[in-house]
Design the sequence.
């Protein structure tokens, strides 16, 4: 749980975390790892228009020791209904137990993997008025030591290495409308468009260098009767390795106090697609779930 402290000129937030992970598996072996972390953020309201936030996340892993991951962000209010913002930050991803220790004739893990790292710079603007919002941002994300399964020849097994450098340049946008008079809880249209400059010498990538070039999502949620909602999400996706395709998901849900009942229909159009090359995905299917909130 974060702790907020009123500091001179701003607000400081401190958060501590610790985790132990244990796996016992016939294919992975028996392993345990411990991680600890501490994050500190400091937000300063320099004026009515300008705010600034700095953050630092310190992470300890018993194999690598301490690592520090900083971040900075700023926002400037141009008018009562518009602002511009900028942010920069570094992040990491630890290898999974599968990536470290899995072994089979077709896939070989690597216990010497390092964490992958990335840095992201984003510039954007947001305009809002009552029940309407429009946001547009540009970003540049650079990655190094990317963890991926690769092979040199089709007959070779997939092996995990830290291999490539990636640079993604992207545009992200969203338009949102909330209109309770029409029982329209939310109507949103958002999209993300990516261009990748990636470096991989002499290898075929299985996962890390496969990405969605374009993704546009239309979502609407309508309230009717008592605590009953109907939602619809329509996706159009264009991966870098395949043709574009459309998916439609529908949901009917109801809240009963702290309980939530939901019936969902996924991939209503029964579209045949691949999230990753060679990996089959389900056709039309349904699910029912019950959630309890505290």
Sequence:
């Amino acid at each position: 749980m974060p702790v907020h402290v009123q500091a001179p000129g701003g607000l400081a937030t401190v958060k501590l975390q610790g985790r132990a992970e244990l796996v016992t598996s016939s294919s992975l072996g028996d392993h345990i790892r411990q991680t600890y972390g501490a994050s500190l953020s400091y937000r300063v309201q320099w004026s009515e228009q300008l705010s600034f936030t700095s953050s630092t996340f310190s992470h300890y892993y018993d194999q690598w020791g301490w690592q520090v991951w900083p971040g900075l962000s700023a926002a400037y209010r141009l008018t009562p209904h518009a602002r511009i913002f900028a942010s920069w930050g570094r992040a990491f991803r630890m290898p999974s137990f599968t990536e470290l220790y899995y072994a089979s004739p077709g896939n070989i893990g690597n216990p010497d993997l390092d964490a992958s790292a990335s840095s992201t710079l984003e510039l954007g603007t947001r305009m809002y008025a009552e029940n309407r919002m429009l946001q547009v941002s540009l970003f540049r994300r650079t990655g190094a030591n990317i963890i991926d399964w690769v092979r040199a020849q089709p007959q070779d097994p997939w092996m995990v290495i830290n291999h490539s450098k990636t640079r993604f340049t992207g545009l992200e946008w969203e338009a949102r409308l909330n209109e309770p008079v029409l029982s329209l809880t939310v109507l949103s249209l958002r999209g993300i468009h990516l261009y990748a400059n990636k470096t991989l010498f002499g290898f075929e990538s299985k996962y890390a260098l496969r990405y969605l070039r374009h993704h546009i999502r239309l979502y609407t949620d309508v309230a009717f009767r008592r605590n009953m909602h109907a939602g619809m999400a329509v996706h159009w996706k264009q991966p870098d390795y395949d043709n574009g395709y459309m998916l439609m998901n529908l949901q009917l849900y109801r809240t009963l106090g702290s309980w939530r009942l939901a019936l969902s229909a996924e991939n209503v159009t029964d579209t045949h697609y691949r999230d990753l090359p060679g990996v089959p995905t389900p056709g039309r299917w349904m699910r029912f779930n019950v959630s309890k909130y505290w």
Q: What stands out?
A: The chain has a mean pLDDT of 89.
